[in-house]
Amino acid sequence: MSPELLPWLPVAALALLAIVHAAFAYKEIFDWEAAAVEVLGMPPEVARACAAVGRNQGLSNAALAAGAAWALVVFRLQDPAWGRQLATFFGAWALVAGVFGYATFHRPGFLVKQALPGLLALLGAWLPALLARGVE
């Protein structure tokens, strides 16, 4: 990897994580029924009955998006070490949520759309620091 691009790796990974979870939050808070039918395969009547739970889940995704954005700002503008800790927390949260979503609903989209951005955030946060120390 180009040394010039290395400092931007955590920024790109955290931006992806924030954007993806902001999109999840929007769909779950404002369009839960359609999202539940489309993504989870729920019958429309079940999606309607679970709407309050879905909106609550959307709020959790909004918190994850805000946390990833916070980690990005701290990492880039304030203190990379503290930003790395925040990125570790929010990246791990997304990774675990994606794996749990897959285990619960058996839909690979959870691994690709949620767990993978979490993993990329973890790699983005730690890879530059490890390479700077000479660990390859």
List the helices and strands and how they pair.
Blueprint (H helix, E strand, L loop, with lengths): L8 H22 L1 H9 L3 H6 L1 H28 L1 H26 L3 H24 L4
Helix pairs in contact: 1-2, 1-4, 1-6, 4-5, 5-6
Helical content class? over 70%
Number of helices: 6
Distance between the termini: 12 Å
Biggest sheet descriptor: none
Please report the total strand number as a whole number. 0
Class inferred from helices and paired strands: mainly alpha
Number of domains: 1
The proportion of residues in beta strands is under 5%
Runs in which pLDDT lies below 50 for 5 or more consecutive residues are none
Shape, principal axes of CA atoms = elongated
Instruction: Give average pLDDT, whole number.
Output: 93
Tell me the Rg in angstroms.
16 Å
Question: Helix-strand pattern, N to C?
Answer: HHHHHH
Features:
136 residues, mainly alpha, 6 helices, elongated, DUF1304 domain-containing protein, transmembrane
What would a concise description of this structure say?
The protein has one domain. Helix content is 85%, strand content 0%.
Describe the overall structure.
The protein is 85% helix and 0% strand. The protein has 136 residues and is mainly alpha-helical. It is built from six helices and no strands. It has helices spanning 9-30, 32-40, 44-49, 51-78, 80-105, 109-132. 32% of the residues are buried. The longest helix is centred in the middle third of the chain and has 28 residues, at 51-78. It has one domain (6-130). The chain starts with 8 loop residues before the first helix and ends with a helix.
